[in-house]
Amino acid sequence: MGYSTKERSVVDFCESKTESLSNWVRQVKNKSINAKTKRKRDLRIIAILSNSLLRAENELIMKQRERARRWAQMQVDLGLCNKEEEIARQQREKIDNLWKNDLSGLDSFFKELDNVKPVLVN
Question: Superkingdom of the source (predicted)?
């Protein structure tokens, strides 16, 4: 009688929240691209999508950095050797650089798209 629920650990819950935020960011990016490429653009919708996307990306980056910080703290608490800590730090820096490059590349790409003027044929 009743229903059964699947027990989920705290780690699964946190991962699913980050994953769902990541999926949401991807969907908003797609909507934003579609809104910007429409022949009749609605600037209000583009502004809302851009603002929402910026906030969500910042939140996602904060969550990822917090997770990396907690992982580093856990490594320190477990007493991992310095070599492993250095490798973990380098991996975090590499991931941060990839995110920065990816987001700044997208930002500059969208700015270039906004500056493109249509060719008028007489």
Answer: Eukaryota
Express each pLDDT in 62-99 by its tens digit: 888 888 888 888 877 877 656 777 788 888 888 887 77
Cα 80 to Cα 75, 84, 87, 94: the distances in Å are 6, 6, 11, 20
CA-CA distance, 6 to 69, in Å (whole number)?
Answer: 29
**What residues contact 20, with CB distance under 8 A and at least 6 apart?**
none
SS3 call for 42: coil
In this structure, which amino acid lies at residue 118? Answer: P
Considering the entire predicted model, what is its pTM?
A: 0.49
CA angle centred on 64, ends 19 and 55, rounded to 5°: 80
